[in-house]
Amino acid sequence: MRLTILGGGGFRVPLVYGALPGDRAEGRVTEVVLHDLDAGRLNAVSRVLAEQAAGVPDAPGFRVTTDLDEALRGADFVFSAIRVGGLEGRAHDERVALAHGVLGQETVGAGGVAYGLRTVPVAVDIARRVARLAPDAWLINFTNPAGLITEAMSRHLGDRVIGICDSPVGLGRRIARVLGVDPGTAWIDYAGLNHLGWVRGLRVAGRDRLPRLLADPALLGSFEEGRLFGADWLRSLGAIPNEYLHYYYFNRETVRAYRQAEQTRGAFLHDQQARFYEELRDPGAPALDTWNRTRHEREATYMAENRRTAGAGEREAEDLSGGYEKVALALMRAIARDERTTLILNVRNRGTLSVLDSEAVVEVPCLVDASGAHPVSVEPLPGHATGLVCAVKAVEREVLAAAESGSRETAVKAFALHPLVDSVNVARGLVEDYLGVHPGLAYLK
Question: I need a surface site. Which of 69, 160, 286, 433 has the fewest CB within 10 A?
Fold first, then answer.
């Protein structure tokens, strides 16, 4: 079975490849094709993969290409993990937004809108090529903003594109760990959009264990989201929010912390990864050791400003091992082998959340089998969550409309309607400044 990874020179690709060996079952991946526009990055990642495969008899073969059509032909599964504009583009997103006094995070607020506007046209082109060159392939989307990009691609691939994120899985795992529950035996009642969802229950043998957690301040303070949001706020919500909701619930504090930081997250990652790829230009450098050292630093500093603002301390050791690759491979294996499983995924709504139309991509538990991912009916969201979900989905739809029409006016509307921008004048300034730093937005007229 052939797996094609778009963005194959990306830093996290070895996480996916490293999880493949050891699988000897029918329908396993036997060949990996890495595609990237940057041949130097492909070479660096190839060296890491070669060291991962050394001495592993069942490691899949891999090859690299900068030709997108060549990468797609014959693929059974396509992982899309592209970053339009690179980390330099992410750093621009952050700096421009902060200069206007609003959040520039890559999936939330002004930064997420900017990233979406320059990524949607590229993602749509990929979806059309997959439909033409690999019509039987399944596309698993890693590219952020994951819900928005998955919805853009679904207009051309239907249900054969599925978006993934490891945030809900990590959240469910942490809640289960605190409650002394095996995550594999628990049903996580989670619903919302990508990076905008809530755990409303954690059921084991039909019994909801979440009320016990919400009633115990000591337990709430013993894991990351409890420290990040505070026990009082979680009890008030009656749910545990995805960590990204910290950007909404504590927006002013977070913007202040980001403006005071020495550098933005995007700038940090840009510099860090530039060092990594530069080090691997030396043919004598130990590729896998260099990658492991860099990855640990990356994971340990994740959402550092938010944790600092909340006084949440350092990340737990258990949360430094990644996770998105495990979700992706579990999804791929369930489809390839008809091994039925349940995963929290980004899929078309199909009536799952009654406040949204059937084509809206939502993030909910899904039953997965050979025919794809099928969203499970969930209880309606409470009013406060419904308001945010509907507002952000409306913004996503304006981003899609702007990308399709090339309308600068519609792009302004997308920024202005976002709850974390909420100013037409700021929105106009954001569009003008982003047009000045992003060649990928030149289509907006």
Answer: 69
Name the one residue in this structure whose structure tokens are 């504090």.
253
Cβ atoms of 38 and 97 within 8 Å: the answer is: no
Distance, first Cα to last Cα, the chain: 43
CB 200 within 8 A of CB 189: yes
DSSP state of 143: P
Full-prediction pTM beyond 0.90? yes
* Helix 287-300 and helix 39-53, axial crossing angle in degrees, nearest 10: 100
Count other C-beta atoms under 10 Å from residue 215's C-beta. Answer: 11
Amino acid, single-letter form, for residue 62: F
Using only C-alpha atoms, what is the Rg of the chain? 21
Select from 434, 433, 401 the least CA-distant residue to 417. Answer: 401
Sole residue written with tokens 């969930």: 378
Give CA angle at 193 (301, 349), nearest 5°: 150
Residues with Cβ < 8 Å from 258, sequence gap 6 or more?
A: 94, 98, 103, 104, 264, 305
Q: Convert the pLDDT of each residue in 179-230 to its tens digit.
A: 999 998 999 999 999 999 999 999 999 999 999 999 999 999 999 999 999 9
What letter does residue 383 receive in the DSSP assignment?
Answer: H
User: Interior CA angle at 164 toward 135 and 365, to 5°?
Assistant: 105
Confirm if 150 and 141 have CB atoms less than 8 A apart: yes
130 token code pair? 């997959």
Structure-block tokens of residue 269: 């990652």
3-state secondary structure 393-444: HHHHHHHHHHHHHCCHHHHHHHHHHCCCCCCHHHHHHHHHHHHHHCHHHCCC
Taking CB atoms within 8 Å and a gap of at least 24, the contacts of 383-391 are 384/237, 385/192, 385/198, 385/239, 386/355, 388/196, 388/248, 388/419, 389/192, 389/193, 389/196, 389/353, 389/355, 389/356, 390/355, 390/356, 391/417, 391/418, 391/419
Work out whether strand 31-35 and strand 207-208 pair parallel, antiparallel, or are unpaired: unpaired
- With H, G, I as helix, E, B as strand and everything else as coil, classify residue 236: helix
